Amino acid sequence: MKGFMSSPGHRKTLLDPKYRFVNIGLGWEPGRFLQLVQQFEGDYVRYTETPDIEDGVFRAAGKTVNGAVLDRTEDLQIQLFYSRRPQPLSNSQLAGSPCQDPGLMVGAILKNPPPNWVYVANGFFNLYERCPTPYGVPEDAVPPEFSEEDVLKLKEAHEGDPSPGAVWSLAHVHWVSPSRWDVRKQQFAVKGDVGKLLEDHGPGVYNVWLKAKLNGKVEIISKYSIFHEVDPPTGYGDQ
């Protein structure tokens, strides 16, 4: 914990008041190293219909709680990110990617424009920096020793700009016009055709980000993973 608090990036997350819960993960190899992971979350959504994609249609419904605000219909934002199904990784492969991202941003569900207005395009191209993939590292490669140099690289990966070894990716982000966009009094229900998005990217994990107003700022209030035509890893759970 002293190490986390001495790292500006980790300290900022630890002290961020929007996080209400923390999950702890431990991994070790006897006599060699111990790794600690903290995953923070909020508790700002009560789903009545958890995000899902069925027959090419995205659906989600629920209400915001604990200070997350949906005063206006445009206060809700929904973004979709794509990544391949997670695979088991060796220590060497894990060491080959010291940072993590939600995947490529491939879609955004927008409220329909006012009457007599239309969107002039069906999306846009976005170029962004991503964490290096661990899958290109041989499983039997010799992992780095847990030395001060490796600690420094890990710190730079989480706080640096850009991250060491990051790669640039170009993706088409689809605008999805919903067939249902009901947002009022902290309640929401959204439905939209994401068939073109699925056609472009295929089976994999579609990570859904919901954004709303929190303490006067637009914040991510929910992250939810949809395993589309792939099975979740063993032990992933129902939620």
Fold and architecture overview:
This protein is mainly beta. Helices cover about 15% and strands about 45% of the residues. It has five helices and 13 strands. It has helices at about 1-5, 10-15, 90-95, 150-160, 195-200; strands spanning about 20-30, 35-40, 45-55, 55-65, 70, 75-85, 105-110, 125-130, 165-175, 180-185, 185-195, 205-215, 215-230. It is globular, with a radius of gyration of 20 Å. It starts with a helix and ends in an 11-residue tail after the last strand.
Quick recap:
The protein has helices at 2-5, 8-14, 91-95, 148-159, 195-201, and strands at 21-29, 33-41, 45-54, 57-64, 68-69, 77-83, 104-109, 123-130, 167-176, 178-184, 187-193, 204-214, 217-228. With 239 residues, the chain is mainly β.
